[in-house]
Amino acid sequence: MVARQIGNVTELAEELSRPSEEDVACLRRLEGDILILGASGKMGLSLARLCRRAADGAGSPRRVIAISRSPVSEPGVEAISCDLLDRTAVAALPECPNVLFLAGRKFGSSGSPELTWAMNTVVPAIVAERFAGSRMVVFSTGNVYPLREPASGGSRETDAPAPAGEYAQSCLGRERVFEYYSGVRGLRCLLYRLNYAVDLRYGVLVDIARKVYAGEPVELTVPAFNVIWQRDANSYALRSLEYCETPPRILNITGARTLWLRATAEFFAARLQRPCRFSGAEGRVALLSDASASHTLLGAPEVAEETLLEMVAAWVSGGGESLNKPTHFEVADGKF
Predict the structure, then answer these.
(1) Among the residues of the chain, which ranges form H helices?
(2) Residue 100, beta-bridge partner list
(3) Coil, helix or strand for 221?
(4) In the chain, what are the domain boundaries?
(5) Which CATH architecture has domain 9-199+228-256+288-297?
(6) Which of 59, 258, 287, 292 ranks highest by number of CB atoms within 10 Å?
(7) What does the DSSP 8-state code read for residue 247?
């Protein structure tokens, strides 16, 4: 597709929450309200908007409820403030047949590992007990896999996890907690292993583009990566509600291609008319996922990697806003 012309944050918000025909059709089939846990993060608000717009397009009245510590403000979305570590507060949340679980902690996890483990394993236990009768898409990460050589094509859902570092270990812990409650309580869920979603204000591509634009060296420790446009990731998350199972289904969620770090930096250098500088020795392994199973089930991403590269370049060169939340994709030892 031709790169979408997105000139400001308002247009970006509109595009990230634009439902596809498949999203609307999904909500014509799927009954019941939608509850989003952890709605104030990088993806939560745009996912809530997409769910609201898809429900309206389907013509099926339903509540879209966003749960977070700091209530979000979005027309048509009910906001509830809740500390998900508080069992009493979670118990008071409304019943809901469709749950999107986005809560978790990553950045700075090496500094407060106890909080990371609490958010990534204790909260899942509290939530799984409370919503055992719901269907639930559980956001996880490709970090549960071992690093692989790019020629491998990436990890598949059938590959054994081998998480490196406490963040990745706690994410596998989150999955195991949901698997446990799926077995003992019949919770229908889907483990949604995502890496890496890109919004024009953050993401691996944005990290690389902004380093190049600022004349900073790009580290070569991790030589390759996968990305997916956040709107496509939002769409996959919504439609994954139809595929929740007991025991849980696992889906890798990312783009179709492996991108090379050096080639990506050189692309941005050409587009941004900046010199390209590198640092460190080029690594041999990277966090990579094979998402062919999700593409077969849910269709290919609407925005291909080539288009996304152009979109990021245009946004950065035009002075577009940044969330200043680096992905730390270049970390190879799991210490984020």
Answers:
(1) 9-16, 21-29, 44-58, 87-91, 113-117, 123-130, 165-185, 204-213, 230-240, 261-272, 292-298, 305-317
(2) 36, 137
(3) coil
(4) 9-199+228-256+288-297
(5) 3-Layer(aba) Sandwich (3.40)
(6) 287
(7) S
Q: Closest Cα partner for 209 from 317, 283, 107?
A: 317
Question: What CA–CA distance (Å, rounded) separates 243 from 274?
Answer: 45
Full pLDDT tens readout for the chain, 336 residues: 444 679 899 999 999 999 999 999 999 999 999 999 999 888 999 999 999 999 999 998 899 999 998 888 889 999 999 999 999 999 999 999 999 999 998 755 557 889 999 999 999 999 999 999 999 999 999 999 999 999 999 999 999 999 998 999 999 999 999 999 999 999 999 999 999 999 999 999 999 999 999 999 999 999 999 999 999 999 999 999 999 999 999 999 999 999 999 999 999 999 999 999 999 999 999 999 999 999 999 999 999 999 999 999 999 999 999 998 888 887 776 676
Answer for the pair 287, 193: CB distance below 8 angstroms, yes or no: no
Q: Distance between terminal CA atoms of the chain?
A: 34
The length of the chain in residues reads 336
- Is 308 in contact with 2 (CB distance < 8 Å)? no
